């Protein structure tokens, strides 16, 4: 069937900010969908609050609304744009839930908007636990025994039938938020309470536990003619009980016979038909009893998902793009397979390699978080690796993680055998203990278990990991022993056949070096010298068809084989190094920059070569760059590619820290680094050099010192006076930066958090309390510098810049201050010889400007600034690096927009019960949203709504602040009162406010007896929370207040500047109706 | 670790590790792209005369079990894999793949770049090859590969067919398709079907039983008049190895049977039917061997994902370059014949149906095993033909 002609315009809903469970993969799907629909000539209207996405680039849609994704706002968009259809399946759970909200509200009916891709009935049937259960029973499939509860009593009744352990899953949440496994009554009640709060509809599914069963996922596509294909079967290495997003997964499935697989396939097809997903991609999850093959259906997502992204990258089948085309009426047989160019999309990819995905976690950022892996997703990112065998792929994935592990490194010091004199039994017991509970490091504990002689049966009993995988790991460990045995002989070179075997098994040069004692560089030299056409690193193509047809797309991965399919061109080319796995501090913003770099190179007629290992990203779509290497971002793997491709140079400045770490090693290996020189990067990063630089330019820096011992630290701190910011020059257990207010705080930090030594000094900076922090981004061609954006942070200096909200242009800084910052930026960029992008952070205290840090590279704020001012900074930066000047590119001065843009950060606190939500110098946010409006108040209010906590229009404001904040809090309270709010405060704050004429009700602190403030919040009697604290002990007192505010989804502020901004926002929403505008209108695009 | 060598007739060499039975073996080297079902592949009689390369890198992961065999033994001449699993992990597994190969005296090789080999076969075509575990001069190995007999024109069916006819009554049991899928609804009465065994896969027989057939399996050489004496409700022409032109006696028998009773052919059975109808067959460059081949049913325009294993195909006078709007018709001595199914990969003919007779066939494998069950409806269509004739 040709494309539908009864619709001309299509609304697409994005997934909003990056959170745990909903990350870059929806930029990948949204971007593919936008491009596919535009290609078909539809008018595309997009809403997404996340500015760091490629999909919100103004070229990708006809109308792009960077506005909060709420039912109200989307209704406004519909009212304004009158789309003919809505495609709800590309923006994750956010888009599905918003769509269901619109259906319920009658908006779609009112404006005659057709749902395409999935009907409301299909979404309901798949998402509502009870409806899904009935649907499965109708088609003869077993689901785990379960019941639905809406309150504690119902939950307990169901529990009585199911027994322990039982799984509690809240309805309509993403990433299994609020879900968990209960082993006893106490746990059960706690989880039920938590889950009820998490579910937007207050509904839970309580389910029989299938812990230890094998888990599988099938990615399914269906078209209007009822053609169904399975894109890829994925097997979880971690058995049931661990959320699939937190599991190590492998594609294709490894331990299913054809009979079992086809039974699963048949079930998936039946499920698609029964649920009624007419077109597009879905994901179906199955559990399989390893004892007897009994199969149950776990769930199905009637939309593209994280697994679809993984399956797309794993097979080369672009699920989202094809799903978009199916949604507008095409059938699978009408769509060509891009990779072969001759075959059709109506087939099932077959792969001749193995794909391994490993999640990446960030527990060290959240003190007090439970690191046990459960049914609620906790990982913040993932890597994928492609190899010819599971063993090779696993080892490539491990080194892609960037955890300073180059292989299955022992956590017990057993790399080169079991050391003499250790209590072996003790170590065995410890490892057994680790293996019993699923945690992020379990894979390495399995390796240690094998080293200690545990059998596959032992390991299976402890972990329920399929023995096939255990055996693969065992083979690697056995080979490690062989390599380590070489070490005893202290060889200069390795036996060649052994080396090739090691490389075929996926061992990195570094790991081989570590095990044998041969230097890593010699390993490299030895294999590059011995490599010839028949041996050595080779690149194979991902072609969807196991080489049955020729692949026209250079989507490559490395392996050690006898034939290389890289076929480099003779063109001018540049390698772009991507950002690797998402983690806190390094997310989608860097992928955005890399994608822009590739686009810029294309525009310049230069071949772009992308290297990355994050399957969620747009940059790893095979049609973004001219050539894609899906490879780990390590020195070894990158050098191999450089050697094969012989590029003009390598671009490091867009991928964040990951490629930057490689600057010096690559430069040393003679690789040309494009843009700002590695020396300049070093000059900005090295403290001593940086101080000299600022002195030379006459710029000011906060007082600082470097302590190599506790005594030295105390001395420095008293010299520069408290409070001070302390951080280690190296990181230990992730506890890095902290503000300390007095000597006892410093002593505690120096003794418990870090260990200062001459080799690893502790850095101490004067903490500029109550200073305003400013972020600035500039672009330079070496001669001309344009300061593109100056952003005033909402939260005061001391809150990590990645966690702070900010405003562009500044909303409270004076003009002279802004001009002075602009001047300093130019000085810095020219002095450093920046070619490309530069970001700097400043603190402004009493109109004095201090330089905090300078990063001569693309920063987290680049996409935000680009969208705020309507200039594609990363693209232009890439062009400057290949020799274009800014005037040539038409950038003389940054546009000064008349609208305000506010960025707000989004945090994963709701995934980590009990963790404090206070902000500090250590970054904790996973993503960001943007609010744009004509005035600051509305822009801020939109940013808050986008981040999930809409500002209230009235009600009770609870205020409890530290003593030094009281005068400022008074102002906030007065304003709120003027705006019609009631005020509540704890005794100290209340007394102060009252004495200054504010009418305020005193409430109990939690410790003061009931009813206390947390009771009020729970009962829905509080609309807004302002809570600032000074030191650790007061943190503990008020933790429950902040947690409860979070649970209730209230707007809460833990800084006075944040509270002030909230007041401005509330004033704006009370005064003026919500208005929305597209980016195209803001920036006068056609 | 014993070394092994694969030598192709064009002189290409691949070194690897010995697997299976020690010795050497010759055959036509082909590749199969299925990701599951290695045991079904090995025991498929259609692979007689061939050495199979599995493109999926890990083989043997879930072991082998007697239940999954598609015939009484392994027929492939040799086996090439990237890596044979050291451990079989599955509740149904009864044996390790290595032991199974060894027991069946199958010479195999692992540890070579199977993707490079596959690409070579794709570019240069399937060709004769040798796997040898015996250390010898590689030139000598290439010569042996060149000397190996080609499958073209050979009667391989004769080597794999049953010695005498037998009854088959076993269905798919716990692996039967669910009523929710398209087949599985057994007919109200039992139909007597005579199945020509050119190398029949057991799952065909099981599926026939599932839909209501009592099956008599007969040797490939059974004549038309012998079939007549059995007085079946329908005749089934099975899959089998090699070149359809190598079994002229079967072509002749089928020619006599057309028009008498409903006939359903699969794979070699389809090719034999094609030749009996007066159409021609040709050898494909590297065949179709896998479980992901899209085929369009031109009558309904629905696409099914099919299991395929053939080296020859039926052709009609005019090559079909694009997907036609309706089934193209070909005039034959038996009246109009419709091309009912077409490969979406290369537009080759995948199904035929006589307009004037109750005769139809498909090139691919609706019995799957290994592969998807999308095409199982064809067994029901066969029943429908018999029902029609009965009425």
Features:
heterodimer, A: 1086 residues, alpha/beta, 7-stranded antiparallel beta sheet, 37% helix, 19% strand, globular, B: 391 residues, Glucose Oxidase, domain 1, Rossmann fold, 2 domains, 11-stranded mixed beta sheet, 7-stranded mixed beta barrel
Notes on the structure:
The complex is a heterodimer of chains A (1086) and B (391). With 1086 residues, chain A is an alpha/beta fold. Chain A has 37 helices and 38 strands. Chain A has a 7-stranded antiparallel β-sheet, with helices on both faces. The longest helix of chain A is centred in the middle third of the chain and has 21 residues, at 467-487. The two termini of chain A are 32 Å apart. In chain B, 22% of the residues lie in helices and 32% in strands. Chain B contains 10 helices and 20 strands. Chain B starts with a strand and ends with a helix. In chain B, a hairpin with a 4-residue loop joins strand 15 and strand 16 (302-315). Chain B is globular, with a radius of gyration of 20 Å. Chain B folds into 2 domains: 3-147, Carbamoyl-phosphate synthase small subunit, N-terminal domain (Glucose Oxidase, domain 1, 3-Layer(bba) Sandwich); 157-389, Rossmann fold. The chains are: A alpha/beta (1086), B alpha/beta (391). At the A-B interface, helix 9 and helix 16 of A face helix 3, strand 15 and strand 16 of B.
